[in-house]
Specification:
Elements lengths: L14 E2 L3 H4 L6 H10 L7 H19 L4 E10 L10 E3 L9 E2 L14 E5 L5 E2 L3 E2 L1 H12 L8 E4 L20 E7 L1 H8 L3 H4 E13 L5 E3 L8 E11 L4 E2 L9 E2 H12 L7 E4 L6 E4 L17 H11 L6
Parallel strand pairs: 1-15, 4-12, 5-8, 5-9, 9-12, 13-14
Antiparallel strand pairs: 2-3, 2-10, 6-7, 10-11, 10-12, 15-16
The structure holds zinc ion.
Zinc ion binds next to β2 and α7.
Length: 326
């Protein structure tokens, strides 16, 4: 297994800058230099991020041994402003693939596609947030907002949960019960175990992207591109929410509370192949992460935002205006 000898293929994809609007620094202000130094550590190959990457690779080793035709490619994390400066925003499996972006292929028989529709399913077992909040209407609303977005025509179809465990990340049940699976609200402990130490306190939600391809005899994975668009072919998406946070459906998002629909809208943007947007910094006075300019696809969740802003719309149109044609 020579691939175990290659260096970590762990990337953090985002740009860095100091957010002047929130810190109002004076020229030469020492706190600015300090925040920029801190900020360079964000998303670096920290022990926590390496652990997360290794965990995704373990999953791919299992998939290789099982003869699967898909592998986990990446996990995109939505962070609380309280997340530590070492928290990664995106984690790749610890293999030597240079990861490209991926796209859904309309009518892909490998995922039992419902024609050009994209199907989504909410697994009921973990649907209660904080033990009592029915999160499903907020999750549904987030899908409906994307379906109605400009350049829409994204045929999002909800499937009923039949009780089959649908997790590809946990390597259990049938992950192809729908294209996009919302597994639900999981304990922070699970976030730490899968995404590395600190995730329980810093990561609000995560979207895992699996892509189709083939494993060779050594377990090395080569992604496919059957529609020749220069992008990997998405196999499935799995979305988790961190139940260690205090959630609500009332549109309240502050340092201690988070609106479910806001994070669902962000995560389901990933499900529709939108990436993160915005420059991240640390507010030198509060120590909290900030991001600008504002977008639903900001990696840091700064307030309630249940609909797309300018860059969200342009990214969405870029992906979907011609669907199912290219
Ligand atoms: Zn995200």
């Amino acid at each position: 297994m020579t691939r175990r000898l290659v260096p970590l293929c762990l990337l953090a994809v985002f740009t860095m800058a100091c957010n002047e609007a929130t810190t109002s620094p004076e020229p030469g202000d020492a706190s600015v230099a300090e925040s920029q130094a801190l900020f360079k550590k964000v998303g670096a190959a920290t022990p926590a991020a390496q652990k997360a990457s290794a965990h995704l690779q373990q999953l791919n080793d299992q998939l290789a041994q099982a003869g699967a035709d898909y592998a986990v490619a990446r996990a995109e994390l939505a962070l609380s402003p309280k997340a530590g400066p070492d928290q990664a925003l995106i984690v790749f499996a610890n293999d030597r693939m240079l990861r490209l972006n991926s796209r859904w292929v309309p009518g892909d028989a490998r995922r039992f596609a419902d024609g050009a529709n994209l199907t989504h399913l909410y697994y009921q077992a973990f649907a209660l947030a904080n033990g009592s909040i029915d999160s499903e209407p907020a999750i549904d609303a987030s899908f409906e907002t994307w379906a109605a977005a400009q350049c829409g025509n994204v045929p999002l179809v909800k499937r009923a949960d039949q009780g089959v465990f649908p997790s590809a990340v946990f390597f259990g049940g049938d992950p192809f019960v729908a294209d996009i699976v919302t597994l639900g609200f999981l304990p922070g402990l699970i976030f730490d175990l899968v995404l590395g130490d600190g995730a329980a306190e810093g990561v609000l939600g995560v979207t895992f992207t699996f892509v189709f391809g083939s494993f060779d005899a050594d377990g090395n994975f080569t992604p496919s591109d059957i529609d020749n668009n220069g992008l990997e072919d998405t196999a499935l998406k799995e979305v988790w929410y961190n139940d260690d946070f205090a959630w609500n459906t009332d549109g309240v998002t502050d340092i201690d509370n988070t609106d479910i629909e806001t994070v669902a809208f962000h995560e389901n943007g990933h499900a529709l192949e939108l990436g993160h947007f915005g420059k991240i910094a640390i507010n030198a006075s509060s120590g909290m992460l900030v991001v600008s300019p504002r977008a639903a696809m900001n990696a840091i969740i700064l307030g309630t935002l249940r609909s797309p802003l300018g860059t969200d719309n342009s990214s969405f149109c870029g992906n979907w205006a011609k669907w199912p044609n290219r």
